[in-house]
Amino acid sequence: MGLSTKTLTVLKYNDAKLELVSEIKFKQTENLLDLLNAHKIGISQSCGGFASCTTCRIFVTKGLQYIKPREDLEAERAQERNFTEQERLACQIELPVEAATDFEIIIANPTED
Q1: How many domains does the chain have?
Q2: How far apart are CA 64 and CA 88, in angstroms?
């Protein structure tokens, strides 16, 4: 059996219209924020990936069931800010390559690079 390749579809809102930012292929489990940074996808981030600023907030619109539940720190931040189940911090997500589906996210706080 060959290596599984997954696709991460990245979307953002532009003038209230949802637009495609990128489709990223990956072949190993990846930290979402690191994957976005490696592909030069603009996403706000000010704490260096430590789940303290919550600026790397995203909405998982496909594949959420394959992502591990929030750990304590992310759960605390999510409760403080009334996040929905789909709202997660990119710095705290590991996208599993062994998932049975591809992933899709919407960046809540995109940046223009």
Answers
A1: 1
A2: 10
